[in-house]
Design a protein that fits this description.
Layout lengths: L24 H15 L24 H13 L7 E7 L4 E5 L8 E3 L4 H14 L29 H5 L19 H11 L10 E3 L3 H13 L5 H12 L6 E2 L13 E4 H13 L5 H7 L8 E4 L1 H6 L4 E2 L4 E2 L14 E2 L7 E5 L4 E7 L6 H20 L4
């Protein structure tokens, strides 16, 4: 058994090596599965006949080992400026892992925007527990927050913060300063967004500000000392992220929208728990994974700017739509890419979660997404294949 290896990133956006399989194995395998599905359709009543009824032929199953081989082959020749790993976990428990170079399952990566999904899930757990409500306003927990009914900032709700439609588009420098005070920096967010003309719920703007305010609401509502205390309680309750932490730019002033260090196994287990519905109630999970933008305009979207894709947003995660205008009836991928090219995702229709872990240059989000897209057909074939 030979394990290949890899390395990840930040965004304010193993497999067993076996013999190589021919490229034609994927489509032919899928065709056989499709044929088998068609064969199973029809009446549940058996035909009335005096003749013996022969058993219908059984369609051959896909070979996940063969498809794993092919995916490994494609990854081994993939052009990449940095080492990386790809981890896949199917709902039936089957796994795939590939890594290149110095990367392994214990390699630490800077999260960049991959932490947005995590931070939102932590806060949503408090909503499930009744500690917070999606309709709550910041001033209910932050005494210094503007409360005058005529001030649009007082109309901000937690749902706006988690969907990045709060109108807090201006980001103060303190969000990125290690020695800044977390709560005072939230006050600064309110200050510099005064009279900006933004109405909560009307515009999507991808920034760190929203999550910082939501985080302070969570700290205050839960009676926690700081975000580290909130995260510790979450880890204790879920047994997740035992090797991960919020520490960028510092542990005392973490950037919730992009300030974690995580290991790939930690993040993959988080994705599995999320996908299985172990973290959130079913109704709240459905809300989190549904389009929260509705008729909001797009002020700034890295998906639009870097990919020319009109993805929409749930609570801390992207709803990927491969179109220049959002018109997806079925979302294929839910994701939270990071600025260094890391790409965590849920392939909901197949019950699979995955993580491309890499740490390229700042702003290499599009490079990481392109790497994943180049092997996505092989990934999907593996996910949809019957076990041998």
């Amino acid at each position: 058994m030979l394990q290949l290896s890899i390395r990840l990133t930040k965004f304010n956006f193993a497999i067993t090596k076996v013999s190589k399989a021919p490229l034609l194995a994927i489509p032919s395998c899928l065709a056989l599965v499709f044929a088998g599905l068609l064969q199973g359709c029809g009446s549940s009543e058996p035909p009335i006949s005096d003749s013996p009824i022969s058993e219908p032929p059984t369609a051959p199953s896909c070979s996940q080992a063969t498809l794993s081989n092919e995916l490994t082959r494609q990854l081994s020749v993939l052009s990449s400026s940095v080492d990386f790993s790809l981890s896949l976990l199917h709902r039936d428990g089957s796994r795939f892992y590939y890594s290149r170079g110095s990367v392994n399952a214990q390699t630490e990566f800077e999260s960049a925007s991959t932490s947005k999904w995590v931070s939102a899930a932590i806060i949503l757990q408090l909503v499930d527990a009744g500690v917070l409500q999606l309709s709550d306003n910041p001033q209910q927990y932050i005494s210094s927050w503007p409360s005058a009914s005529s001030d649009p900032r007082s109309q901000i709700q937690l749902r706006h913060l988690l969907s990045f439609t709060s109108g807090l588009t201006e980001e103060p420098v303190c969000v990125n300063l290690a020695n800044a005070d977390f709560a005072q920096c939230v006050d600064k967010i309110a200050e510099i967004n005064q009279n900006n003309g933004k109405i909560p719920g009307k515009e999507f703007y991808y920034a760190s500000t929203h999550m910082q305010v939501a985080g302070l609401m969570a700290i205050k509502a839960s009676g926690s000392r700081d975000w580290a205390d909130v995260f510790s309680k979450f880890k204790l309750q879920t047994n997740l992220f035992s090797h991960s932490r919020y520490d960028l730019p510092s542990a005392t002033n973490p950037r919730l929208a992009g300030g974690m260090h995580w290991q790939s196994d930690d993040y993959l287990e988080f994705l599995r728990s999320y996908q299985r519905g172990n973290l959130l109630s079913n109704s709240l999970k459905l809300q989190a994974m549904s389009d929260q933008l509705q008729n909001a305009t797009i002020g700034y979207s890295p998906a639009r700017a870097a990919l020319n894709q009109d993805w929409h947003y749930g609570f801390g995660l992207w709803l990927e739509c491969s179109a220049s205008s959002f018109n997806c009836s079925n979302i294929r991928y839910y994701s939270s890419p990071g600025a260094y090219g890391a790409y965590p995702f849920i392939f909901e229709s197949a019950g699979m979660v995955g993580l491309l872990a890499r740490q390229g240059g700042l702003g290499s989000f599009a490079e990481g997404k392109a790497q994943f897209d180049s092997v996505a057909p092989a990934v999907e074939a593996w996910a949809q294949c019957n076990l041998p």
